[in-house]
Amino acid sequence: MTETTTRKITPEIVAEHGLKPDEYQRLLEILGREPSICELGIFSVMWSEHCSYKSSRVWLKTLPTSGAKVIQGPGENAGVVDLGDGDAVVFKMESHNHPSYIEPFQGAATGVGGIMRDVFTMGARPVANMNALRFGAPDHPKTRHLVSGVVAGIAHYGNCTGVPTIGGETNFDTGYDNNILVNAMCVGLAKTDKIFYSAAKGVGLPVVYVGSKTGRDGIHGATMASAEFDEKSDEKRPTVQVGDPFTEKLLIEACLELMATDSIIAIQDMGAAGLTSSTSEMADKGGVGIELDLDLVPQRETGMTAYEMMLSESQERMLMILKPEREADAKAIFAKWGLDFAVIGHTTDTQRMIIKHKGYVEADLPVPVLANSAPMYERPYTEPKKPAKILPEWVPAPNSILGTLKELMSGHHLASRRWIWEQYDHMVMGDTVGRPGGDAGVVRVHGTQKALAVACDVTPRYVTADPEEGTKQAVVETWRNLTATGADPLAITDNMNFANPERPEIMGQFVASVRGMGEACRVLDYPVVSGNVSLYNETNGVGIPPTPAIGGVGLIPDSSKLADIRLKTEGNVLIVIGREEGHLGQSLYQQHATGKFEGAPPPVDLEAEVKAGRLIRALIREGRALAVHDCADGGLIVAIAEMALAGGKNGLSRDASGLGVELYAYEGKLPTHAVWFGEDQGRYVVEVTPQKAEEVLERARLLELPARIVGRVGGDAINLTGETALPLSELRTANEGFLPGLMGG
Question: Could you report how far apart the first and last alpha carbons of the chain are, in Å?
Answer without folding.
Answer: 59
